[in-house]
UniProtKB/TrEMBL annotation:
Pfam families: rve (PF00665), RVT_2 (PF07727), SH3_retrovirus (PF25597). Residues 1-164 form the Integrase catalytic domain. InterPro entries: Integrase_cat-core (IPR001584), Retrotran_Ty1/copia-like (IPR039537), RNaseH-like_sf (IPR012337), RNaseH_sf (IPR036397), RVT_2 (IPR013103), SH3_retrovirus (IPR057670). It comes from Rhododendron simsii. This is Integrase catalytic domain-containing protein. It comes from the Eukaryota. GO terms for biological process: DNA integration. GO terms for molecular function: hydrolase activity; metal ion binding; nucleic acid binding. Keywords: Hydrolase, Metal-binding. The keyword tRNA processing does not apply.
């Protein structure tokens, strides 16, 4: 609520007296909107009169009333007249303890920002320091101006039909000079417009993480969603789907400024490509063969994916092209713990981990040498049933005694998603460790958007799984350790078991 809490602070005395013979400036900051007001003082004793002036201005101008005033305990805020006035007006006075400026951090930080801006502007124009008050006033004016937020400009009735949107989504980039109104940037047309009738979302900003092309494609797909039956996946916001009554399907995935699409109807392919080519300058590379370091071989039998090229590049980078291969990435029974002695070459170590992600030793490079052509094969027309395996060790981490969760999900007989991660909590039994693993896997399968990794205790996990089992969305089936495909993600395995698990994942050399 505006004026629910107001921060107040005095800055000064400044060594240089201003043109108006002032030594201090006083700031008021509304905690709700962060709008700032500044007053200039010759003496600190003027604070009380300036507060009454400020109170009349903001309360009559906004219709709201100041509820709480926060300041430090200096005398200009705690005088008898000031305190009595606050009591009469029903304003609560919060005073921070001595030597704790951080408790009045909003005002302290604002004053520092204002001074930084003032110094920069004075230095940039090589102006005398006596102009500091004018520069401070200018800095506060600039700080109070909203910039870069989302703004909806009204579309005149003459330029739209009754069923079209009344507003267009833009970005506020300034204020009119010769043209009265707000200066807005339309990211769709990439043009600047001026509008007087604007609705602002001051706390919302444009997602500049995406490229301009990405945003334009995304907005076009959203239009397609409304006009031509596309649906946006609620769990994966870059995935769009279109399903016809005759069973025809089209799936479109947006990654940066790349479009990947698949389906079962060539006519839908052609229509979609035509629409995109009309809107954007695009290149059609036909069947996808390489994406994010993954190589794809598509044939009439199915799709084979691998990282052969990337694996070869890693071996070359670390001079391991001619190393002797091994059949497992880690010796079975290997237990690693932090060492308190000895130094390592941090640059080389970080570079190796960065390239291999979780691969941290030369043995794993030797394993890659013998398996760099291995991959996953998804058979065309095969079984599309989803199934999963999940497993957990118990406290295998010798440093933190936390358990490791591993799970893998299959489409038919081939894995399509998997993970191996250390649990966030220390479990007290193997039973609890298994519950944590089960909950993580069910979350991944259900794609619950409200999931937070720092979930609640084991009872919450248990009830979550129970609800999905009762709803028959998930069927829990026990399996023997030797048939547990997720075992490969929780611990080092012997050669025979490792090869068996690897085969169960659907990995092969094509």
């Amino acid at each position: 609520m505006p004026l629910e809490l107001v921060h107040i602070d005095v800055c000064g005395p400044l060594k240089q007296i201003s043109n108006g013979q002032n030594k201090y400036f006083l700031t008021f900051i509304d905690d709700y909107s962060r709008k700032t007001w500044v007053y200039f003082l010759k003496l600190k004793s003027e604070v009380f009169e300036k507060f009454k002036e400020f109170k009349a201005l903001v309360e009559k101008g906004s219709g709201y009333h100041i509820k709480t005033l926060r300041s430090d305990q200096r005398g200009e805020y705690t005088g008898d007249q000031f305190e009595e006035f606050l009591r009469q007006q029903g304003i609560r006075h919060q005073c921070t303890p001595a030597y704790t400026p951080q408790l009045n951090g909003v005002a302290e930080r604002k004053n520092r920002t204002i001074l930084n801006m003032a110094r920069s502007m004075l230095k940039d124009k090589d102006m005398p320091k006596r102009f500091w008050a004018e520069v401070v006033q200018c800095a506060v004016y600039l700080l109070n101006r909203v910039f870069g937020c989302i703004a909806y400009a009204k579309v005149p009735e003459a330029n739209r039909t009754k069923l079209e949107d009344k507003g267009v989504k833009c970005i506020l980039v300034g204020y009119g000079d010769r043209t009265m109104g707000y200066k807005l940037y339309n990211p769709i047309t990439q043009k600047v417009i001026f509008s007087r009738d604007v609705i602002f979302e001051e706390n919302e900003s444009w997602s500049w993480d995406q490229t301009e092309a990405t945003r334009n494609i995304e907005l076009t797909l959203e239009d397609e969603e409304q006009e031509n039956g596309f649906e946006k996946c609620p769990y994966e916001h870059a995935l769009y789907m279109k399903k016809e009554t005759d069973g025809s399907q089209l799936y479109v995935c947006l990654y940066v400024d790349d479009l990947i699409f698949t389906g079962n109807n060539l006519a839908m392919f052609k229509t979609f490509k035509k629409t995109m080519f009309q809107e954007f300058e695009m290149t059609d590379i036909e069947l996808m063969a390489h994406f994010l370091g993954i190589e794809m071989t598509q044939s009439e039998e199915g799709i084979f994916i691998s990282q052969s090229r990337y694996a070869t590049e890693i071996l070359k980078k670390y001079g391991m092209e001619t190393c002797n291969p091994v059949t497992t990435p880690v010796d079975s029974g290997l237990e690693l713990k932090k060492s308190d002695t000895g130094n390592v070459d941090l640059t080389y170590f970080k570079s190796l981990v960065g390239s291999l992600r979780y691969l941290t030793s030369k043995r794993i490079l030797r394993y890659i040498k013998g398996t760099h052509s291995d991959g996953l094969f998804y058979q065309l027309g095969g079984d599309l049933n989803r199934s999963g395996y999940l497993d957990s060790d118990w406290g295998r981490d010798l440093d933190e005694r936390k358990s490791t969760t591993g799970f893998v999900f299959f489409i038919g007989d081939t894995a399509f998603t998997w993970t191996s991660t250390k649990q966030a909590i220390m479990t007290l039994s193997s039973c609890e460790a298994e519950y944590v693993a089960a909950n993580s896997a069910v979350f991944a399968l259900a794609k619950n958007p409200t999931h937070h990794e720092r979930s609640k205790h084991i009872d919450t996990r248990y009830h979550f799984i129970t609800e999905h089992v009762k709803a028959k969305e998930v069927e829990l089936v026990s399996c023997r350790t030797y048939d547990q495909a997720a075992d490969i993600f929780t611990k080092p395995l012997k050669h025979e078991v490792f090869v068996k698990m690897k085969t169960m994942l659907g990995m092969k050399n094509l």
